[in-house]
TrEMBL record:
<keyword id="KW-0949">S-adenosyl-L-methionine</keyword>
<dbReference type="InterPro" id="IPR050869">
    <property type="entry name" value="H3K4_H4K5_MeTrfase"/>
</dbReference>
<keyword id="KW-0963">Cytoplasm</keyword>
<dbReference type="Pfam" id="PF00856">
    <property type="entry name" value="SET"/>
</dbReference>
<feature type="domain" description="MYND-type">
    <location>
        <begin position="50"/>
        <end position="88"/>
    </location>
</feature>
<dbReference type="Pfam" id="PF01753">
    <property type="entry name" value="zf-MYND"/>
</dbReference>
<dbReference type="InterPro" id="IPR011990">
    <property type="entry name" value="TPR-like_helical_dom_sf"/>
</dbReference>
<keyword id="KW-0539">Nucleus</keyword>
<protein>
    <recommendedName>
        <fullName>N-lysine methyltransferase SMYD2</fullName>
        <ecNumber>2.1.1.354</ecNumber>
    </recommendedName>
</protein>
<dbReference type="InterPro" id="IPR044419">
    <property type="entry name" value="SMYD2_SET"/>
</dbReference>
<dbReference type="GO" id="GO:0008270">
    <property type="term" value="F:zinc ion binding"/>
</dbReference>
<feature type="domain" description="SET">
    <location>
        <begin position="5"/>
        <end position="239"/>
    </location>
</feature>
<keyword id="KW-0862">Zinc</keyword>
<keyword id="KW-0808">Transferase</keyword>
<dbReference type="InterPro" id="IPR002893">
    <property type="entry name" value="Znf_MYND"/>
</dbReference>
<dbReference type="GO" id="GO:0140999">
    <property type="term" value="F:histone H3K4 trimethyltransferase activity"/>
</dbReference>
<keyword id="KW-0805">Transcription regulation</keyword>
Length: 430
């Protein structure tokens, strides 16, 4: 578990409560682990992972009733029943029309858990779910409306299987889930599900974090990615650190209601490289650059929405057109160019266009390594995707090199004995 004497809750100056180290930690050392208070497997991964323990394997057996939940064995099925029973009959009744959001599914499980679990859990040694910040008073109308929609969906899909309190208590709960919930990703950063890890949620944010959170099944593990001294506050990152300071703080303000004052945010050291402008004989004017940044931010947002309804080839076209336009002003290492390349790579992977994916990945990896901190899951997963693409395309030398790069980062972030690393080492042997 990691000894609780090694870390402690404290009042962090200007940041409210936080977590602090009581002894020093070496690079890669485990600070603590936290079992999920509650969790839910994402709908798209059904059948690939066990609904109960999140193990990824072939030949899982399905729930005989709804045929929608999959398990390693009878033990996992039994273990999951207190949560699965919230959905099993409802999924049968609604069939194709059963579509609550993942937030609604997770929140239903929190309510069910709170009914049966009245004592403090192993996941709440430093912070309890009840203590979660809601920031309800700071929500704008758009956010309030989203919560109202979630409450309506909860009533719609869970009223038969779950008894819950009045709407005002539900508003608070949904607001708490929105700023304290976690998403669980696999080694390639594909979304696996959502979960609540109260002790992990106690950590404050920094854009130069000294720990990284990874997952072993449904357990969160927190490891040092910088040397930590006794008395140091423990910081994780809440957001993708690729983007420049202003973008990061827009995101933090919008989702978590604060502005970051870390070293990176005050020095803006990496912003220049992140916003690299092409070196032309006739350099673009300040206004041209400003307009292009505005265009870039819009296209990022446009693509995010388009993902839900456009075809893969339409999405690729958005990527290519926007890169062509931005390429007149931005270097290829500019984060807005990288963002679109990353999206294009994702579409290629989805379409099983391995050469296309590889082409984008090769362009992304070097600037990625420069923009992200030394130990980053984004960089590790990019090396891993590249390595697997090379191996699949019979390019063994490049594949071996890339997979080893991924392992180097993952040994620190995930711990050397993580099953992901064991699997990659097997891929290296073949
Ligand atoms: Zn299982
Ligand atoms: Zn079922
Ligand atoms: Zn910061």
């Amino acid at each position: 578990m990691g000894l609780s004497e090694d870390i402690e809750r404290f009042e962090s100056c200007g940041k409210g409560r936080g977590l602090r180290a009581r002894r020093s930690f070496q690079l890669g050392e485990l600070l603590f682990s936290c079992p999920a208070y509650t969790y839910v497997l994402t709908v798209n991964e059904r059948g690939n992972h066990c609904d109960y323990c999140f193990t990824r394997k072939e030949g899982l057996s399905k729930c005989g009733k709804c045929k929608q939940a999959f398990y390693c064995n009878v033990e996992c099925q039994k273990g999951d029943w207190p949560m699965h029973k919230l959905e099993c009959s409802s999924m049968c009744a609604y069939g194709q029309n059963w579509n609550p959001s993942e937030t609604v599914r997770l929140t239903a499980r929190i309510i069910a858990k709170q009914k049966t679990q009245t004592e403090r859990t192993q996941a709440e040694r430093f912070l309890t779910v009840k203590e979660f910040e809601s920031h309800l008073d700071k929500l704008d109308n758009e956010k309030k409306e989203l919560i109202e929609n979630d409450i309506a969906a909860l009533h719609h899909y869970y009223s038969k299987s779950l008894h819950y309190s009045d709407n005002s208590a539900l508003e608070v709960l949904f607001a708490q889930v929105n700023c304290n919930g976690f998403t669980i990703e696999d080694e390639e950063l594909s979304h696996l599900g959502s979960a609540v890890f109260p002790d992990v949620a106690l950590m404050n944010h920094s854009c130069c974090p000294n720990v990284i959170v990874t997952y072993k099944g449904t357990i969160a593990e927190v490891r040092a990615v910088q040397e930590i001294n006794a008395g140091d506050e423990i910081f994780t990152s809440y957001i993708d650190l690729l983007y420049p300071t202003e973008d990061r703080n827009d995101r933090l303000k919008d989702s978590y209601f604060f502005t970051c004052d870390c070293k990176e945010c005050s020095t803006k050291q990496k912003d220049g490289a992140k916003m690299e402008i092409r070196k032309l004989n006739d350099p673009p004017s300040a206004q041209t650059v400003k307009d292009m940044v505005k265009y870039a931010r819009n296209v990022v947002e446009e693509f995010r929405r388009a993902k839900h309804y456009k075809t893969p080839s339409e999405l690729l076209e958005i990527c290519e057109l926007s890169m062509e336009k931005m390429g007149a002003v931005f270097e290829e290492s500019n984060v807005y160019m990288l963002h679109m390349m990353y999206q294009a790579m994702g579409v290629c992977l989805y379409m099983q266009d391995w050469e296309g994916a590889l082409k984008y990945g090769q362009k992304i990896i070097k600037p990625y390594s420069k923009h992200y901190p030394a130990y980053s899951l984004n960089v590790a997963s990019m090396w891993l995707k590249l390595g697997r693409l090379y191996m699949g395309l019979e390019k063994k030398t490049a594949g071996t090199k890339a997979l080893k790069k991924a392992i180097n980062i993952m040994e620190i972030a995930h711990g050397a004995d993580h099953h992901y690393i064991t699997e990659i080492k097997k891929e290296l042997e073949h």
